[in-house]
Amino acid sequence: MNVEEALARAQREEWARVVAALARRFGDLDVAEEASAEAFAVAVERWPVDGVPPNPGAWLTTTAQRKAIDRIRREDKRDAKQREARMWQDEAPEPLGAVEDERLRLVFTCCHPALAADARVALTLRLLGGLTVAEIARAFLVQEGAMARRITRAKDKIKAARIPYRVPAAADLPGRVSGVLAVLYLVFNEGYLATGPGTDPVRQDLTAEAIRLTRLLRTLLPEDGEVAGLLALMLMSEARRTARVSASGELVALGEQDRGAWDAALITEGHRLVRERLASGEAPGRYQLLAAINAVHTDARDVRDTDWSQVVALYDQLVRIDPSPVVALNRAIAVAELDGPEVAMAAVDRLDDALTGYHAYHATRADLLRRLGRSGESRAAYDRAIELAGNTAEVAALTRRRDQLP
Predict the structure, then answer these.
(1) How far is it, in rounded angstroms, from Cα 69 to Cα 71?
(2) Looking at the domain assignment, is residue 260 inside a domain?
(3) What was the pLDDT predicted at 198?
(4) What range(s) does the DUF6596 domain occupy (predicted)?
(5) Overall number of domains in the chain
């Protein structure tokens, strides 16, 4: 492995671990993030000269800790800060408690109920997933500047409120879990369909980390249906990863994928979790319904065997508990297969005001207009989808479909 590959791998695999280690030790998310970034910058300079260290993660953590202490020494109230820094340098690590995973502890810190729900998700995507502010802004469909301010306010709130860096007590877990699940789902989605320019279209490092943390969360809350539902959803989505991008670099639609290339073991595990939740008799939540929809898709040996009536019925349940425009858009896509593109088009057009900046909305319109024979309008919708899409594989697929219009 050359130095460039080693640096890229370290960024993917070690960023969250280094940030989490510094957050626990210094109790300051700004210090943790900035010192980690400085350590990676030093690696870019040093590794080509000195060689890649035998343990890149340990090297980065040690370097980041030194950078953090240097920063603290430069701040005001220098004498007190220096004593504190020396104490941190020499102290034994605090016990991790029931969950010996610093990254999951960081998620719980960022998902404290004192923070607004959207701030919890955005902050954790930044610190845990290593996503840029621009990538997070795209995930939330907001401007980059607004997202940067949101993240800064969340960090300030954690510092001012002295929110501890730990997994909460068992009695507090239910109050935090919804925010944690939202974070893990968005981390997974960024890996499933990466939006950053110049990144791989599918980032397995993020999907794998989201699955790993969700498995840990399930050990904490084995009876929580939504945790099980999210894990099932991730597993069945991850099962299709190798079939989702063609050899030429295009995103392959679900109906065109080679289903023989899907990971049967992951699908089996996901289906088992869905069946367990159905057998519980409890009313399903959002993630359980999304997992059930995914189970219908992955149960069909061919796209023509898909039970679209069941998919639409599940979306009907989902709309009742999550009446978001994105859910309505996905329901319309299923309706197109059941009732035809004209019925679906009417539903999609009602979403224009809410989703005008969302590339998938325009891609859906483009496909429906193509099926209705309205090629000129379809081409314009494809152009808009291509303009908004950030994923290189998706742009390639949309471009080909647009260029195939009569």
Answers:
(1) 5
(2) no
(3) 62
(4) 176-276
(5) 1
Contact by Cβ (8 Å): 355, 330: no
Backbone angles phi, psi at 286, to 5 degrees: -60, -50
* CA quadruple 220, 224, 227, 232: dihedral sign: positive
342 lies in some domain:
yes
- The C-alpha atoms of residue 40 and residue 23 are separated, in whole angstroms, by 16
The whole-angstrom distance between residue 133's C-alpha and the CA centroid of its chain comes to: 13
Name the 3-class secondary structure at 238. Answer: helix
Q: What are phi and psi of 251, to 5 degrees?
A: -70, 130
- pTM for the model: 0.80
Residue 323 resides in a domain: yes
- Give the closest residue to 347 by CA, choosing from 357, 333, 359: 333
* Residue 90: both structure tokens together: 């020499």
Residue 397 sits in a domain whose CATH number is 1.25.40.10
237: phi then psi, degrees, rounded to nearest 5: -75, -45
Q: How many helices (H) and strands (E) does the chain have?
A: 20, 0
Cα angle 402, 405, 406; round to 5: 155
Q: Is residue 188 part of a domain?
A: no
Q: Are 237 and 230 in contact (CB under 8 A)?
A: no
Task: Name residues of the chain where pLDDT drops below 70.
Answer: 1, 76-100, 196-199
Task: For residues 129 and 20, give the distance between their C-alpha atoms in angstroms, rounded to a whole number.
Answer: 11
Residue with tokens 């084995």: 222
Render pLDDT for 288-333 as a digit per residue (tens, 0 to 9).
999 999 999 999 999 999 999 999 999 999 999 999 999 999 999 9
Structural domain span for residue 401: 317-406
Question: Residue 308: what pLDDT?
Answer: 98
